[in-house]
Amino acid sequence: MNLSHRLPSRLKTMTKLHVSSLDAKRSSSVSAVSSFIMPPCSRPLRRAVIYIVAISISIFVLYRSLDSLDAVPSSSSIFSRIFPSFDSFQSLELEEPKLEDVLRRAATRDNTVILTTLNEAWAAPGSVIDLFFESFRIGEGTSMLLNHLVIIALDAKAYSRCRELHKHCFSLETEGVDFSGKEAYFMTRSYLKMMWRRIDFLRSVLELGYNFVFTDADVMWFRNPFTRFYRYADFQIACDHYLGRSNDLENRPNGGFSFVRSNNRTILFYKYWYASRIRYSGYHDQDVLNFIKREPFVFRIGLRIRFLNTAYFGGLCEPSKDMNLVRTMHANCCFGMDSKLHDLRIMLQDWRDFMALPLHLKQESGFSWKVPQNCSLDSLRRYDESMYEEESEPPGESQE
């Protein structure tokens, strides 16, 4: 017999049996516990327990937050204590964007933006702002320019409407002044305040280092105007009546469309223009421009002024005669919202009809505008004659 061989094998067998019995006991114990805690039908019960525990913890945390304060806080205060980032998130939601941020997002590579102002009357659905956007959409190479347009809202409803339509909006509400009325009629007190507020705002844009094209919302954009701006001019402005030369100070400007480069000369000029409202109290900004454009200060600062040809930048006062050349058309020389909207819709349809023509017919047909219609030029001419007999005394020509 060889005991040395049998003993180890027997010990191994006994060890395996002992381990097997321990595993069996452990397994049976686990099974017993499992069957007690998590029976096959207890999944809904387990979810309910977890839910109750979570609610209990939340209530305990809220109770401790309330207990540590002298008074019962608002719900936002509670969230701020539990989630420290809540306050910063809330401020981002409520804070209106700063002007410089809006301009930076909208600007071209050379820091140029397109600006227009909007009040409640012109912001209503089916009103001027909708026609303004439509002109960009149906114009030739103009839709992309909307990326650089900033709408300056003069009241809360205009700002809300802008947010619905466009991505670059800025609120410019003026304390103590309500620009939201049905319509700011030409030369009324509200109208004058709105025009002068605009001049002061444009000065601030120049001081931030941005060039701008300012356009009234009743200016229809049919082609890209940048190709027709003068390269070295500081201040370029459209005209109610153009006399044939861009540097002729006798041209009658219209403040509803202008291109201004940001530099020391233009900043000084806009400050001087705005300050001149005190000397010429009760006058329109456009009228005051007519008064000051010859003054020594303007020559002393070296401001380079150019007037834009109505062949390219026309309006109802003096429509562009060749639709192959036109860049913009303004519903100027027009009183009353209904008349303005009527003629603007006809103007847009004229453009659609022209663009639908074959190329050879566009060049040969002599296609022309069917406006003005409801916008009366005769009444404006009579008004104009009485006001321009002596430029130093009466107000200038209508802008709207």
Description of the molecule:
With 400 residues, the protein is of the alpha/beta class. It has a domain at 99-357 and 364-378: Spore Coat Polysaccharide Biosynthesis Protein SpsA, Chain A (Alpha-Beta Complex), CATH 3.90.550.10. Helix content is 48%, strand content 12%. It contains 15 helices and 10 strands. It has helices at residues 3-37, 43-67, 75-82, 86-94, 99-106, 120-123, 128-138, 156-165, 189-207, 264-279, 285-292, 296-300, 337-355, 359-364, 377-387; strands spanning 112-118, 149-153, 169-171, 211-215, 219-221, 235-241, 252-260, 305-307, 313-315, 328-330. Strands 3-2-1-4-7-6-8 form a 7-stranded mixed beta sheet. Strands 5-10-9 form a 3-stranded mixed beta sheet. Strand 2 (149-153), helix 8 (156-165) and strand 3 form a beta-alpha-beta unit. Helix 7 (128-138) packs parallel to helix 13 (337-355) and helix 9 (189-207) runs antiparallel to helix 10 (264-279). It is globular and about 90 Å long. Mean pLDDT is 80; it is low at 1-8, 10-39, 66-94 and 386-400.
Kindly list the characteristics that best describe this protein:
single chain, 400 residues, alpha/beta, Spore Coat Polysaccharide Biosynthesis Protein SpsA, Chain A, 7-stranded mixed sheet, 3-stranded mixed sheet, 15 helices, disordered N terminus, disordered C terminus
